[in-house]
Amino acid sequence: YIGVMALDIRLKKVNKIYYEGELVSGVVVIQSKGDMQHQGVHLSMEGAVNLQLSAKSVGVFEAFYNSLKPIQLVSYAVELVKPGKLPSGKTEIPFEVPLKPKGHNKVLYETYHGVFVNIQYILRAEVKRSLLNKDLTKQSEIILEYKNPKEKAVAKAVPFTISPDSLQNIKEKSQIPRFVVKGKLDSSICCMSRPLTGELVVESSEAPIRSIELQLVRVETCGCAEGYARDATEIQNIQIGEGDVCRGLTLPLYMIFPRLFTCPTLITSNFKVEFELNVVIVLQNDHLITENFPLKLTRF
User: Fold this and answer.
1) 216, 263, 206: which is closest to 239 by C-alpha?
2) Of 61-65, 74-78, 150-154, 283-287, which range is least confident?
3) CA torsion sign, 19 to 24 to 26 to 30?
4) Structure confidence by residue, pLDDT tens digits, 86-127
5) Following DSSP, what letter does each residue of the chain receive, concatenated?
6) Taking the alpha carbons of 256, 260, 266, 272 in that order, is the dihedral positive or negative?
7) What integer pLDDT is reported at residue 177 of this predicted model?
8) Is residue 163 within 8 Å of 150, Cβ to Cβ?
9) How many CB atoms lie under 10 A from the CB of residue 159?
10) What mean pLDDT do residues 24-43 have?
11) Torsions phi, psi of 103, nearest 5?
């Protein structure tokens, strides 16, 4: 009879944030009731960019299927304990794994959880057991961030005026109620650890306003020589004005970039991760007025 077992990975760093070239260290903790035979305890670390196609792109690009293999960034495996017997109780097995790219010219990208692009670094511990017993596995994600400033955010203010004349994709401009909204983004180049800020003033609007919102959008592009699939999806939406806001009142724009769902703007030959901000004015009759601002995100 083999007792109940539990397997866990405990990292030395509580926040799980690591940098390229660092050693990822910790212990694999095994708890068992009674002695336990095993076929070896293994640890692996895999880092990869996983690319997916949205349903709308799949039919268009047959050529994509072969090019959308995951891009391997890190691959490392080590046997921590040779086959044998673990004593009853708690066993802690220390480990150290170098966080280094696989191959010479590869770089490690920051951790990013997207919709069609995912960049993840996963530690996986495994206790192999004889045929009748299931192997035990446990995985834990570590978060990679850039350490050296590749580029620093330099403030680049973006003043804007939104009015019927500034709108695109509109056939009948005469049918749109008159309005003027002015404001500025303090910078379209944003350091991710600081909030995006700015201001907005509704100078005039014929139609009553229902809401003013800031929408953060990820634009993910997966591609190859045959073409590109580009998809924009919402990350978050923050309301900055509720109801028919006062005319001439300065509304502050303030948005914090969420962790993991954003990363420094990334443009490579196989995929891109970019970000945009939409300022959305919702009129009472459900008319949507949107002004789009491409953003560039940096770590520093």
Assistant:
1) 216
2) 61-65
3) positive
4) 898 999 999 999 999 988 768 899 999 999 999 999 999 999
5) ----EEEEEEESSSS-EE-TT-EEEEEEEEEESS-EEES-EEEEEEEEEEE---HHHHTT-TTHHHHTS-EEEEEEEEEEE-SEEEPSEEEEEEEEEE---SSSS--PPPPEE-SSEEEEEEEEEEE---TTSPPEEEEEEEEE---S-SS------EEEEE-GGG--S-S-GGGSPPEEEEEEES-SEEETTS-EEEEEEEEEESSPEEEEEEEEEEEEEEEETTEEEEEEEEEEEEEEEESSPPTTPEEEEEEPPPTTT--S-EE-SSEEEEEEEEEEEEETTS-EEEEEEEEEEE--
6) negative
7) 86
8) no
9) 9
10) 92
11) 90, 160
Task: Please state, in angstroms and rounded to a whole number, the distance separating the CA atoms of residues 140 and 114.
Answer: 18
Residue of 120, 118, 116 lying closest to 52 (CA atoms): 116
Q: What angle do CA 51, 259, 234 make, to 5 degrees?
A: 60
Residue the block writes with tokens 């073409």: 227
Give pTM, 2 decimals. 0.88
How far, in Å, CA of 274 to CA of 4, rounded? 47
Q: pLDDT tens for residues 55-83?
A: 666 555 555 554 578 899 999 999 999 99
Can you tell me the distance from the alpha carbon of 167 to that of 291, in angstroms, rounded to the nearest whole number? 8
Q: What distance in Å separates the CA atoms of residue 52 and residue 66, rounded to the nearest whole number?
A: 12
Query: For the chain, first and last CA: distance in Å?
Result: 56
> How many C-beta neighbours within 10 Å does residue 64 have?
19
Q: How many CB atoms lie within 10 A of CB 10?
A: 11
